[in-house]
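Section 3.1 - Work completed
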Amino acid sequence: MTVATGERAGAVHVSGELLDTKRIGAFRHLTVVAPGVPERFRPGNFVAISLGDSSFLARRSYWVHRVRPVGGYGAAIQLVVDPNGVGGAWLAGLPAGSRIKVTGPLGRPFALPKEPVSCLLVGEGYSAAPLFPLAERLRERGCAVTMVVAGADEAHLLSSLEARRSVRAVTVVTADGSVGQKGRVAGVIEEALARSQAEVVYAAGPHDTLHAVAAAAEAHGAWSQTAVEVPQPCATGLCHGCPVPVVGEDGVARVARACSDGPVLRGDRVRWGDLG
């Protein structure tokens, strides 16, 4: 099985328009027209949003959930925002028609198999957003796609109904048991791997979830890619403010930049015990 390298596309910095915003469960879904970004987007890329108040010095990074055509505007990107925290609350509170500064697509995307293989996608909370366009690309390549969607409760599950319509099989897990199985990803990943017989595993979520998925994939002989989330002050790699401890191909420990060397990194290369 061969996996192609995830290639970065050139980013653009544009003034975008917020076309639509709606609350779905615990999250806010935003549709944004950002000329040049959809055409360059690859699953696993993210965009950086410059907050409107000049007192906010750092940008905020958000996964692209999907790219879709919008009449009269061409293609638009959809973002999933957790309305907690300064940046999330500001962005989630913007009315339709607002102008926002968007830089993207940024980061190294998911690498895709060069031939049809069985793939398992594991996502938790809003972080599952980049797995949905990834599932579409994998299906286009003839891959058999199964998915694990997890959240703290029903409100924090992202698009579980959409997942059921778009992949071969879905396992839903909630910490409180309100929907699907009760528990965490770590408790179902072994069974999901055995059932799917996945050769490639993709994961997006909190660090403990990514660690559990990467370890299980390695034990099953599968190749894993993990979309790591850490604060990204500049989102372009210049400030070196988003360190991720990794092991290089030469076996030497080093530090990668989440925003430019990642955010997608091989699961067996991240030093999870050293990741704060």
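Second construct:
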Amino acid sequence: MAFLGVPETTRGCPAFSSRRVRSLLVLIVAVLLALAPGPAPAAEGELRWGLHVTIAPRWVDPAETEALSTPIMVLYAIHDALVKPMLAGMLTPSLAESWAESKDHLSYTFTLRKNARFHNGDPVTPEDVKFSFERYKGASAKILKDKVKEVQVVGAGQVRIVLKEPWPDFMTFYGTTASGAGWIVPKKYVEQVGDDGFKRAPIGAGPYYWRKPPSVKRLVMRSMTEETTRAAALKAGEIDITYLLTGPTAEEIKRTPGARLAAPLLSAAFWLDLPDQWNPKSPWHDRRVRLAASHAIDRKAVNQAETLGFSRLTDSIVPRVFQHALPFDPPPYDPAKAKQLLAEAGFPNGFDAGDFTPFPPYFSMGEGVAGYLQAVGIKSRIRTMERATFLSEWHDKKLRGIVLAITGAFGNAATRLEPFVTKNGIYAYGFLPQVDDLYARQARESDPKKREALLHQVQEIVHDQVLYVPIYELAFIWGVGPRVQEPCAGLIVGFPYSAPLEDVTLKK
């Protein structure tokens, strides 16, 4: 059995002899990378999750955070950030008890909490904040590094981030899950064990010292990629919460005595990513073909089949709840119109689109969408993979054909667009110069109304050019077992997973 979490050497060590420091480590997170051969009864105060993904070792390191919500699930369980989304709002002081923006908008000074410590008892220092930013290489790292001039250690309890020029979105990129740059790791420990050693035995600063002690003393994450296996484990009492249930399985759990469903609406939209549209020789290069794909999909039927109708149909990759979002309703389901557009584009008999790769594990949704495309002549072959591999190939621009994509990272319209439509976007296979220019202009614009107008222009172009084929904003269905009193579904608005973990309670 492989475990990731608090290193054994920190448990019971002298650093935890005092009551104050011992309270920092009331939770041990055990991330199981393989299923146990046989379930044992849950210990007192233990909560068990059945995960729909296999945990990737890189997810325990904030430096490699992807612009997705699944790695953030692990960060919330092990680490803490200066500022992060919480119950009080998207930018809630956490490791930093406060921050102040300078009058010239060129710097942000953070005051650290005096009792902030890592799991090994070491204090969280401004040097750790500076180190964490400088080693960050995950989502939106380039735009952050391009905009930030330097990170200054002001004193024992303060750190200042200085910008090269005013940037209205700095706190949104730094203080939400749009990136992992604001999540803090211990400089001394990382330098001692190295990056690989840190992944094997991460030390964090979260999550239970500055709000309240938890009810749950131990959280076990079990990787259970088969949906029916997760559902069976919940019914048998082997796990307490399972994530990602679709239509029939969700209905089955709904009928199970003692179990219940939760379905928080996420800040996450599904869409079809069409990487080959940037190749002039590909059928996808023609806007009419992309629009045909959009008309071919019966979004309402997919929503009902996958999420019991809880999700919200859309024609944008930017969630409606985001600041500066420009909402678009999807085009009608019209297969005849889709065939007409294909014929006008020179493909009256359709074409072979190659691989169709669904975001794991949304394979049944991928098969459903592929079936609608097939019905109008856009043929494809479903290609499945586990999530960590998918994310690596997507990030490395290796996926082709059709990609069923989703992200649940927080932020606003600017942070959602940056990874996907800009020249340096982590998942952008191509870009439009006009979009890139507008995006750069809005990043420098200090007038909120003018900035919103620029972001609306970007969204209008993305929509009019059908750069993506959005489907719906996801309602993420959980199964909750009888041992759980408060699962914390949707307490952090838009977040997919149970959080904050210190608010989760078990029945006594």
